[in-house]
Design brief:
The protein is an alpha/beta fold and 267 residues long. It has one domain (8-190, 208-257): 2-enoyl-CoA Hydratase, Chain A, domain 1 (Alpha-Beta Complex). The chain has 10 helices and 9 strands. The strands form 2 sheets. A 6-stranded mixed sheet has the order 1-2-3-4-6-9, with helices on both faces. A 3-stranded mixed sheet has the order 5-7-8. Helix 1 packs parallel to helix 3 and helix 4 (116-123) crosses helix 5.
Amino acid sequence: MSEDGPLLLTGCDGRGVATITMNQPRRHNALSAALVAALAAALHEAEADPAVRVVVLAGAGPTFCAGADIGEMRASADATVEDNEREASRLAALLARLDGLATPTVARVHGNAFGGALGLVAACDIAIASQAAAFALTEVRLGIVPAMISPYVVRAIGVRQARRFFLTGERIDAPLAERIGLVHAAVPDAGLDAAIDAITGGLALGAPGAQAEAKRLLRFVAGRSDDTDRDAARATARWIARLRAGEEGREGLSAFLEKRQPAWRKS
């Protein structure tokens, strides 16, 4: 429980569509350690419930998810590489669980989705955004990289687009997110819930066993396995831990918190 109430709101309708809503609106649903743990537990419960046919991931308040929790990022600047790696591994494990869930998953994206939020979006099977949604991979502007989310984002948008957005950190509006494959559709704000209902209704028509096998098939033809996914998760957690503890990572976070330009900017 937090100042906003429960970390998550959950519910399941008569069709078997379970909605997991991040419920930290005053914190813009930032990915704190507590929220990451709650999401992982909720996904486990949903997958284990035979009544659940589809999982929708959503955010309460004006923001889908602001990415990393700033308070915890501040602490990470003074943490050891080993402590940073343990913290990073929790998000890596959540993304792996979301990506590997046997149940079909849908991201309902509104408002801002920054940093780690793009990992949640890309790890879902289907992503639908409102046309007012905005996305960004701003890590390089903080002296770090989008390490743990990179396998999922690159699979969604491809290496060529990732080369641009990983390096620039620029904002991506919803129509552009649709064009590059980050989301499957960008719809008018007023039509977001109708679009989610339509896609979840279609998913509910499929055989659950066949859908789980389809997801396994996609992993197979993409050359993925449990071993390769675990190796990637470990490697990316080590990557971000090293950069958070490095000179640019410390400077980038300090500049952000102090609302000043980092040392590498000349103007």
